């Protein structure tokens, strides 16, 4: 039977305490819960029972923390999950909290992705946008449906800013192409943008 090997002390009487079982960190519980369930070091405990205790006593705390985290700026579902797990909540509890947040429509990865696209499409190409959304945990189903069609005017503006005060040498054009690639634009789009520079030179 697993055994509680350490109960970490909080900074004050209202702090959540760290619970270690067989020398491994398992979760946080508030001090009142530890007292209520008479949890002590050396006590044998079933891990499922420990999960149940946190589920019963920490759901409101986890929900409140998630809402506070969300209030700063919009987050993806994965960002909320990662945040709660980093605060010592077990994955089973985190899933319950996520379901509750979704029921209030406080998180919506589809809408998050659309807002991100709207705010980024005049600075970045589709590859950069997709990579960033993937890093934030947006699902492939959502990402694969994304379509971004950069306008010639927007690309020309980026090129002009980059080439400002630079000579239009072959080397600088290549550097500009690499700059646009780093912004997430594909090579076909970049080739056309660089081609327009050369057209301007010939006019």
Task: Give the class-level CATH name of the largest domain.
Answer: Mainly Alpha
Round the mean pLDDT to the nearest integer and report it. Answer: 88
Sum up the overall morphology in one term.
elongated
Q: How many discrete structural domains?
A: 3
Q: What's the helical proportion of residues?
A: 55-70%
Order of helices and strands: EEEHHHHHHHHHH
Q: Which fold does the CATH topology of the largest domain refer to?
A: Arc Repressor Mutant, subunit A
Indicate the proportion of strand residues.
5-15%
Number of discrete helical segments: 10
User: Structural class, please?
Assistant: mainly alpha
In the predicted model, the low-confidence regions spanning at least 5 consecutive residues are none
CATH architecture of the largest domain: Orthogonal Bundle
What separation lies between the terminal Cα atoms?
A: 82 Å
Report the radius of gyration as a whole number of Å: 26 Å
Major sheet details: 3 strands, antiparallel
Strand runs, count: 3
Strand arrangement, major sheet: 1-2-3
Q: How would you portray this structure in words?
A:
This protein has 203 residues and is mostly helical. The protein folds into three domains: 4-103, Arc Repressor Mutant, subunit A; 109-143, no CATH class; 152-202, no CATH class. Helix content is 60%, strand content 8%. It has ten helices and three strands. It has helices spanning 31-36, 47-72, 77-86, 91-103, 109-120, 126-135, 140-143, 152-163, 170-182, 187-202, and strands at 4-7, 16-21, 24-30. Helix 2 (47-72) packs across helix 4 (91-103), helix 8 crosses helix 9 and helix 9 runs antiparallel to helix 10 (187-202).
């Amino acid at each position: 039977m697993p055994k509680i090997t350490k109960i970490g002390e909080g900074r004050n009487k209202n702090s959540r305490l760290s619970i270690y079982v067989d020398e491994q960190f398992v979760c946080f519980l508030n001090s009142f819960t530890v007292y209520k369930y008479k949890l002590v070091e050396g006590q044998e405990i079933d891990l499922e029972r420990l999960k149940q205790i946190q589920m019963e006593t920490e759901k409101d705390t986890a929900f409140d923390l998630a809402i506070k985290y969300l209030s700063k700026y919009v987050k993806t579902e994965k960002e909320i999950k990662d945040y709660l797990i980093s605060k010592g909540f077990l994955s089973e509890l985190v899933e319950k909290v996520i379901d509750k947040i979704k029921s209030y429509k406080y998180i919506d990865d589809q809408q998050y992705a659309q807002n991100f696209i709207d705010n980024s499409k005049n600075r970045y190409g589709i590859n950069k946008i997709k990579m960033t959304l993937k890093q934030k945990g947006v699902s492939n189903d959502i990402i694969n449906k994304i379509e971004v069609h950069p306008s010639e005017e927007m690309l020309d503006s980026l090129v002009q800013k980059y080439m400002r005060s630079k000579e239009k040498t072959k080397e600088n054009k290549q550097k500009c192409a690499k700059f646009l690639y780093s912004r997430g634009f594909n090579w076909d789009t970049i080739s056309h943008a660089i081609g327009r520079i050369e057209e301007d030179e010939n006019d």
